[in-house]
Amino acid sequence: MVHQEIEFHHRVERLNRKRQALRHGADACLRADGLLIAAPRRRRSGLPLKGLVLCLLVFLLFKAGLIAAVGPVTYDSRVDRLARGTLAEAAGAWVMRREPLSDRVAQEIRSWTF
Known about the structure:
The chain is built from 5 helices and 2 strands; from the N terminus they run αββαααα. The protein is 68% helix and 9% strand. The chain has helices at residues 2-22, 49-70, 72-83, 87-96, 100-112, and strands at 26-30, 36-40. α2 packs across α3 (72-83) and α3 packs antiparallel against α4. Strands 1-2 form a two-stranded antiparallel sheet.
């Protein structure tokens, strides 16, 4: 009798956990035996990783395009002049500084031009 009561409490706990998970929404799933069940909706991450990576990639291409268009010497002089400005301009200069990846992409862009 005690064993049956323990099993009953475990089933109740499982049902309570499932009910708690279903509070945030549910998707209907069809099992292989034809039974339709409610499965908890998967929560999405708060950070859109794909969007963030895409923004960083576009920014890298923009910066490499600028380096390729004006040349590395002129680009460095303009970034240096920007760094001597206000705090916001200095922060922008820090972001826009050349690094090996943007230099490599700029070299590839320059090689595409005719």
